[in-house]
Automatic annotation (TrEMBL):
InterPro entries per the UniProt record, alphabetical: c-di-AMP_regulator, YbbR
Name used for this protein in its record: CdaA regulatory protein CdaR
Sequence intervals crossing the membrane: none
UniProt organism field: Saccharibacillus endophyticus
Residue ranges of coiled coil: none
GN (gene name): cdaR
Pfam families referenced in this protein's UniProt entry, alphabetically: YbbR
Biased composition (Polar residues): 407-426, 440-451, 459-483, 493-521
Region (Disordered): 407-528
Length: 528
């Protein structure tokens, strides 16, 4: 016996037998359909048939449960024919879910497709109970799990997502509550330099189990793990802003700008970092866009002078443009600011103190804009008693502009006891220095001029509430003069930033990424 077991051929036979037994244990389905024939010979019962659903709107709903999951059918026919159709694959049990239009529990009748010449006698059961749930989609920020450790003397830094880490997850409503995180893995084992790659994302529940039914969009993301050899260096995080150059084709406006990163981290000595307060804005050339749709920009980021490095080293922007539409917002209130102490002001045109504002932008953005999202401000600083035409400062949501070449204006009646000295800029009240004439001074009259050596403030630069609209000298008559401010230079706003959609008369003051001004802040302020 020992000699037989020691024989190499015998050992191979035993190993093969064990392998076959293990394979059978794994692959044999004890619930597979079975066929049982009745004693009459012309009746056959087929048990454990699976049910095939069809007609359910898979984009909106998911079939959660079916009870029972298998049924039996009783058929009749010629004995020879039933014997030739011995496999259960010839019999299909179906249920129609096309009439289900909302989530819930339903009782559904079953249908059986039998082979030709075979008659269906009965289905047991003839109906099943199904539960249908609605699919929901929710936004998540994907995270990265690094495995392994970098090479000796090196350390990993925070991950950088090339195209951002925002993803959309779709699941049945009951399962969405279980989602804890959306995660991908990447190895940094033995690395002495940055590690980059595309990682597959997986949805995990609160107890750490994988949610197999989760549909994640995008299913994978690009990530970079910076590896540092100088772990003791300091770092500073700076906001990453964007500006625009060029212009969009006629009829198109910006709908959305997605940035792969909203900030950068600069590494270097404490002295270098102390001197950094911002990172130069990234300029996107809108001339590259020739048609509606998405355009992707990939921009390299350089470390500031004296810094060791910057993370990320590049960033992608996805710019979406669409045909513009317009919408009129009624009864937007006007706010008065800057009125001198002792004076009162009344808006005489429009008498209601409210204005209708026509705005332009993408239809998806216009839909949510209301009067509360628009701010109209009239700066009355420096105005004396009398009637004045005051241009309004307009603040709008991102990528929205007014449908006018110049900002709107109102007529204001100022009354009160404030002295001319309190209301007028020094240049207007200096009796020893009369206003220059075109022959002696090349600049136009401007009531917002400041004393020599004093820089004009932002409000003086942009409000222009007292600036004559011509180059002729103006003699102001307190209480009677109507002043028409000059329109600001095209392409500028109060904040000094450029509106990439056509910025005449609009100001973007939200917390999202905003355009940066690429040239001067306007030509209306006069600096002595």
């Amino acid at each position: 016996m020992d000699k037989w077991l020691a024989n190499n051929t015998a050992a191979k036979i035993i190993a093969l037998a064990v392998a076959l037994i293990l394979w059978a244990m794994v692959h044999v389905d004890t619930d597979a359909p079975t066929i049982t024939r009745s004693s009459q010979g012309d009746h056959t019962t087929i048990a454990n048939l699976s049910i095939e659903p069809y007609g359910l709107d898979a984009d909106k709903y998911v079939l959660k449960t079916v009870s029972p999951q298998q049924v039996s059918v009783n058929v009749s026919g010629q004995t020879s024919q039933l014997a030739s159709l011995a496999t259960s694959s010839e019999y299909e049990v179906k249920m129609d879910l096309s009439k289900i239009e909302e989530p819930g529990q339903y009782t559904v009748s079953l249908q059986v497709d039998t082979p030709p010449g075979v008659e269906l006698l009965s289905i047991l059961p003839s109906k099943v109970t199904v539960t249908v749930e609605e699919k929901v989609t929710q936004a998540f920020d994907a995270v990265v799990l690094t495995t392994g450790v970098p090479a000796e003397g090196f350390a990993e830094l925070d991950p950088v997502f090339e195209d951002g880490n925002a993803v959309q997850v779709t699941l049945p409503a009951s399962e969405m509550k279980q989602v804890q995180k959306i995660q991908g893995e990447i190895s940094v084992e033995g690395s002495n330099g940055n590690v980059s790659g595309r990682i597959k994302l997986v949805a995990y529940s609160n107890n750490g189990e994988v949610l197999d039914d989760a549909v994640i969009e995008p299913a994978s993301i690009k990530v970079q793990i910076p590896i540092s050899s100088n772990v003791s260096s300091s770092s500073k995080t700076l906001p990453l802003n964007v500006s625009y150059s060029g212009s969009l084709p006629d009829g198109l406006v910006l709908s959305d700008v997605k940035a792969g990163a909203q900030e950068v981290t600069v590494y270097g000595s404490a002295d270098v970092l102390k001197s950094l307060s911002s990172y130069p804005p990234i300029t996107l050339d809108l001339d590259r866009i020739t048609a509606e749709g998405e355009t992707t920009y990939s921009e390299a980021l350089a470390a500031p002078e004296g810094a060791d490095r910057i993370v990320p080293s590049s960033v992608n922007y996805t710019v979406t443009v669409v045909p513009y539409e317009q919408k009129t917002i009624a009864n937007v209130p006007v706010t008065l600011t800057g009125l001198a102490k002792g004076n009162e002001a009344t808006i005489t045109n429009p008498e209601s103190g409210r204005m209708d504002v026509t705005i332009v932008g993408a239809s998806s953005l216009l839909a949510g804009v209301t009067a509360s999202d628009i701010t109209l401000t009239a700066d009355l600083a420096g105005l004396n008693a009398g009637t004045h035409n005051v241009q309004l400062d307009v603040e709008l949501p991102n990528y929205i502009r007014i449908n006018e070449n110049t900002p709107p204006s109102i007529t204001v009646e100022v009354t009160g006891t404030a002295s001319d000295t309190e209301n007028q800029p020094p240049a207007e009240t200096d009796t020893e220095n009369p206003a220059p004439t075109p022959e002696t001074d090349g600049s136009s009259g401007n009531n917002n001029e400041t004393d020599p050596g004093t820089e004009p403030s932002d409000s003086e630069t942009n409000t222009n509430t007292d600036t004559p609209s011509t180059d002729e000298p103006v003699t102001e008559q307190p209480g009677t003069t109507e002043e028409t401010p000059a329109a600001p230079d095209e392409g500028t706003t109060d904040s000094g930033q450029t509106d990439p959609t056509e910025s005449e008369g609009s100001t973007n003051n939200s917390g999202e990424t905003k355009p940066e001004q690429n040239n001067d802040t306007g030509g209306d302020a006069v600096t002595p």
